[in-house]
Amino acid sequence: MCPQDSPTQTRTKIRILIVDDEPLARSNLSVLLRPDPEIEIVGECGSGVDALEKIRSARPDLLFLDVQMPECDGFDILEMLGVDLPPAVVFVTAYDQYALRAFEAGALDYLLKPFDNARFERALERAKQVVKRGKDEPRKLERLAIKSVGQIFFVRISEIDWIEAADYYACLHVGPRTHLLRRSMADLEKELDPKIFCRIHRSTIVNLARVERMEMNADGEYGVLLDNGASLRLSRRYSKELQSRLGVGEAHPS
User: Fold this and answer.
1) pLDDT tens readout for residues 192-201
2) What residues are paired with 18 via a beta bridge?
3) Under a CB-based contact definition with an 8 Å cutoff, are residues 58 and 77 in contact?
4) H or E segment and range at residue 109
5) I want to staple 127 with a disulfide (CB 3.0 to 4.6 A). Which of 31, 88, 196, 215 is the partner?
6) Where are the domains of the chain?
7) What does the pLDDT look like over 15-54, one tens digit per residue?
C-alpha cells in the first residue's frame, strides 16, 4: 500500500492567497512561495472584489495583499472582512506612505517593492510562526477598521455604545462620534460577542454595558436609555431577550 498523508499532516499546510492587480507581481510571489513544502497556494486574485469572495470561500491562513487596486483597495478589504480576515496579512506594495496605516490595521509585515529574497523569507517565516501559534485559537473581533475620506479609523469593539442600520451601512456610535462601516447588521451581529451586544430592534444593536434603564413611553412601549443619554427604541420582538440578557424578569406596565 502506498503511504498517504494523515489528516494531521494535511492540516499543517499553511494556506495562502495572493492579491495584486499586476499579473507579474502575483507570478513573482507564487514563484517565491511554491518551493516551500509547508505552503499551499489556494488562489490568486487580481482585484479586491474577487479577493473578498475568495477569502470567504477559501479561508486562507495568510494573505499577501496589495494596497492600491481598482474598485476595492487593500484597506477596503480589511474594513469589510471582519472576523473573516485571515490570521496573518502581509502587505506587498510599491508605496511606502501606507506602512503606518497597514500596521495599525493589524498587518503583520509590509513588503516594499522591489524586495530581495532574503527580505521576503523573513516576512514569510514570521507569518508562518504566527499562523502556527494561532491555529487552535478562536478568532475574536477586537476592533474594526473604518475607511473615511482619506482617513482610516480603528474602533475598539468594547468602545461602541450602539449600532444602527443606515441603508447598506452600519452606523457605529462611539461616544460623541459616529462612523459608517460598510457591513450589514446581520454580518456584524454574527461576529459580535453575544455576552456584550444585544439586538433590540431590527435596525439597532446595543452594548449591554451601556444600558442604564428601560423606560415606558406615552404609547406604552419600552425604550432603552443608555448611560450617555441616548434613547433607543425597543421592539417587542426583542424585548424578552433583552430583559433576559440584563438578568431581569419581563417588565409589565403598572
Assistant:
1) 888 899 999 9
2) 44, 64
3) no
4) strand 109-112
5) 88
6) 11-134, 155-245
7) 999 999 999 999 999 999 999 999 999 999 999 989 999 9
What is the CA angle 154-194-197, rounded to 5?
A: 55
| CA torsion through residues 147, 149, 154, 160, sign | negative
Residue 110: all three cell numbers together: 509590509
The verdict on whether omega for the bond into residue 86 sits within 30 degrees of 0, i.e. cis, is no
Question: Which helix (H) or strand (E) element contains residue 51?
Answer: helix 48-58
pTM: 0.58
Contact present, 201 and 234 (Cβ < 8 Å): yes
CATH 3.40.50.2300 assigned to domain 11-134? The reply is yes
Euclidean distance between CA atoms 135 and 87, whole angstroms: 9
155-245: CATH superfamily: LytTr DNA-binding domain (2.40.50.1020)
Look up residue 110 and give its amino acid: Y
